[in-house]
């Protein structure tokens, strides 16, 4: 069966989104709460906010690209100047729970508390309510998406079942736009490493930079050929290192060289689809 090609604004051939997960030290705290007393482990996430993020933002400014930055509410409270800088440079702020929770391990009530607190923290700081939702690396449930929709989020970027945005029926009379993601286009699984808590559990990584960049270019080339939506996930602690940040610049140049690309934020994607510009 031939896959239906989406239609993109202005006759563009494909779409591309850069998304940034601003987890700070919460990624490590989710793995092991005793990390609160491990300054070395916490510093792995703090580096992303204190050093890596600025490098990403500077490249995006140079290339004229706006990203979608998902942040937990706790990070908005702990790093207000950084989140305000992201917002002030014109990037979208989306929600990522409150403390990087594994939503599938929580009750419906606990999920709602985390999503509500996260959205409210962003609202207090930036003066806007987030329109997009991404769950942390752990699993989510259909209730997670229903709660996000209840609290004003109109799109999700969580699932891996397509490479085109689509409207997902939430089974309660509501729906949400899903903008799918794929692990291959996420920097953290390639580069995150720590001895304790052990990540990855079997150790034996950091990946070769040239190989990762080749993966990303090949994935985009496929999306470009078939007219799909390429979603890149970045963590400032991974891509923001001085030896890796050039990968982002080279990838963007590769994407622009192929041409015919609509660079979009999540909210722009939602507005396009809600206006029936894309085929649902």
UniProtKB/TrEMBL annotation:
<dbReference type="InterPro" id="IPR011330">
    <property type="entry name" value="Glyco_hydro/deAcase_b/a-brl"/>
</dbReference>
<protein>
    <submittedName>
        <fullName>Polysaccharide deacetylase</fullName>
    </submittedName>
</protein>
<dbReference type="InterPro" id="IPR002509">
    <property type="entry name" value="NODB_dom"/>
</dbReference>
<dbReference type="Pfam" id="PF01522">
    <property type="entry name" value="Polysacc_deac_1"/>
</dbReference>
<dbReference type="InterPro" id="IPR037950">
    <property type="entry name" value="PgdA-like"/>
</dbReference>
<feature type="domain" description="NodB homology">
    <location>
        <begin position="39"/>
        <end position="280"/>
    </location>
</feature>
